[in-house]
Design a protein that fits this description.
Layout (H helix, E strand, L loop, with lengths): L1 H24 L3 H18 L1 H8 L7 E2 L2 E7 L4 E4 L21 H10 L3 E9 L6 E11 L2 E8 L2
Antiparallel strand pairs: 1-2, 2-3, 2-6, 4-5, 5-6
Helix pairs in contact: 2-3
């Protein structure tokens, strides 16, 4: 019986550590905001052309676990994307999340009247590959805008 108890305790500890490791792979609200602030500052320093290219490279310094920067113009044309650069150049104005919410359209609506904002949606997590609730920080960058989101579940 003691061997079964030891095995059960060992398995419980292993599962708790695995959960803690996964939680460590998930970026926080503060980390998402800091990455957006870093991206906006970078765009101001080097210009949007270079910055957007940097944001779209995994080794550009703007992708961290489940965090990445994406940018678009006010017509919904994607200019940068740290998780899926194949989307660059596409118009995503009509893009919908699984609930029918249009995040690009809403981001443009928000940023038409403000320099920054937030929105909530459901989106595929690049780490877990599951659809999860996500909050996105938005900021204008010259005539365009960028966002960085964090998963909330």
């Amino acid at each position: 019986m003691p061997r079964l108890i030891r095995a059960t305790v060992a398995m419980s500890v292993a599962l708790m550590c695995a959960g803690a490791a996964f939680a460590g792979d998930r970026a926080s609200k503060e980390e998402a905001k800091a990455l957006l602030d870093k991206a906006v500052a970078h765009a101001k320093d080097v210009g949007t052309g270079k910055a957007f290219a940097d944001f779209s490279r995994r080794d550009g310094g703007f992708v961290d676990r489940d965090l990445y920067v994406y940018c678009a113009d006010m017509q919904g044309n994607l200019l940068a994307h740290g998780d899926n650069p194949n989307l660059i150049g596409k118009n995503l104005m009509e893009l919908k999340d699984p609930d029918g919410f249009q995040p690009v359209k809403e981001a443009i609506r928000i940023l038409s009247g403000a320099d920054a904002g937030t929105l909530n949606l459901k989106w595929p997590n690049p780490v877990t590959k599951k659809i999860e609730p996500k909050s996105v920080f938005l900021s204008k960058v010259k005539n365009d805008w960028c966002g960085v989101g964090y998963y909330t579940s």
